[in-house]
């Protein structure tokens, strides 16, 4: 039987304890926890088991390949998630602050993309190319957007169509990156899915070094994605305003 809410944490041991709520967006309840005497992070949400299996499999793959990511901590029965709950290692570090920091972030994102070429899509998700024809996918529901806004988003995504895909982190903002002197860590993989890598590379001061045209294409597609994925709050409306109107013939 599925255990309700945070009662599921008992599956990581009788001494597993919640400590402090962390920023985790609107989709999840995220806390620092103590498990087996060690500091960790736990995320409780409503994602399906198939979705969580994809995410935990990805994180273990990236950890084995040498990227610094939160690593799933098994429950006492060996499962990597239970009843919508994931427990992961705590990642130390500070947010990126300087242009040099962000260039290191760009390098880490490109390594993520290299390591996941040909990766299967996250269950239930759609890529930007899929949404040229599909209306829904996980948190995206284009039917809820104004038709003119949908047309603008699709025009932006069409400029990426046909490019190779890989796993994108999906939200590499300052709050989801931790840097130290010797490594860059990416945290909060809740938005990760398979898409065109350029969507990850719209970074402060163009840290990824995209040329003017590539940056414009990526920036427009990224703004369209963020508008669609959280429509219609204040932030999504602001992002949609950044997507250029479709030229009339």
From TrEMBL:
A family per Pfam? APH
Species, as recorded: Paractinoplanes rhizophilus
What is the protein's name according to its record?
Phosphotransferase enzyme family protein
**Origin superkingdom:** Bacteria
Which parts of the sequence belong to the Aminoglycoside phosphotransferase domain?
19-202
């Amino acid at each position: 039987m599925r255990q309700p809410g945070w009662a599921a944490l008992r599956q990581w041991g009788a001494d597993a304890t919640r400590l402090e709520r962390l920023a985790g967006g609107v989709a999840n309840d995220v806390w620092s926890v103590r498990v087996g005497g060690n500091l960790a992070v736990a995320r409780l949400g409503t994602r399906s088991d198939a979705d969580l299996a994809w995410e935990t499999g990805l994180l273990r793959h990236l950890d084995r390949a040498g990227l610094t990511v939160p690593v799933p901590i098994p429950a006492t029965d060996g499962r990597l998630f239970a009843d919508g709950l994931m427990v992961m290692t705590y990642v130390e570090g500070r947010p990126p602050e300087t242009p040099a920091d962000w260039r290191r972030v760009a390098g880490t994102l490109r390594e993520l993309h290299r390591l996941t070429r040909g990766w299967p899509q996250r269950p239930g998700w759609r890529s930007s190319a899929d949404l040229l024809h599909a209306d829904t996918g996980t948190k995206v529901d284009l039917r809820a957007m104004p038709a003119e806004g949908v047309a603008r988003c699709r025009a932006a995504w069409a400029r990426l169509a046909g490019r190779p895909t890989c796993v994108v982190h999906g939200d590499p903002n300052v709050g989801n990156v931790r840097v130290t002197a010797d490594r860059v860590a990416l945290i909060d993989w809740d938005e990760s899915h398979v898409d065109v890598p350029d969507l990850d590379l719209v970074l402060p001061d163009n840290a990824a070094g995209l040329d003017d045209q590539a940056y414009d294409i990526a920036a427009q597609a990224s703004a369209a994605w963020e508008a669609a994925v959280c429509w219609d709050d204040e932030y999504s409306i602001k992002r949609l305003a950044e997507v250029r109107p479709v030229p009339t013939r």
